[in-house]
Amino acid sequence: LPESGVPQLVQPMIWDYSADLDVEDKVQLIEKYQRCGFSKVWFASAFKGATGVNQSLTLIGHHLKNQLQWLEVASRTPPDVLEGIALTGWQRYDHFSVLCELLPVAIPSLAVCLQTLKDGGYSEQVKENVEKLLGMSDLEINTYMR
């Protein structure tokens, strides 16, 4: 792979939407990419659309945990290696599936995930900022919001 020149042309993206991704496994994968000559990598997380093909509502807690796990991976990655995080929001699992977790119901999750990534973690202050931004009185993280 190093002799092919590919590592100078592309930057790999590591995708994982799980709430309990294996941090050590991701760190080792990044190290492997570096040994192959890739100087930069991207991470891909999700704020919606990754928990079930027919999911209607977004469970913020699942996606928040995913962001926190990626932040843990980032903290164990040399700062000059991580190019960025693509925060995805899938609408369907394939072109033949029904739509899932439409954007309006996922906006609170998007706001929590963005604020968490921006601040480098989740705190009561993040929750208060999102509630104020969205005009909500009580943001529910671990139950389905209606």
From TrEMBL:
<protein>
    <submittedName>
        <fullName>HEXDC Hexosaminidase</fullName>
    </submittedName>
</protein>
<dbReference type="InterPro" id="IPR038901">
    <property type="entry name" value="HEXDC-like"/>
</dbReference>
<dbReference type="GO" id="GO:0015929">
    <property type="term" value="F:hexosaminidase activity"/>
</dbReference>
<dbReference type="InterPro" id="IPR017853">
    <property type="entry name" value="GH"/>
</dbReference>
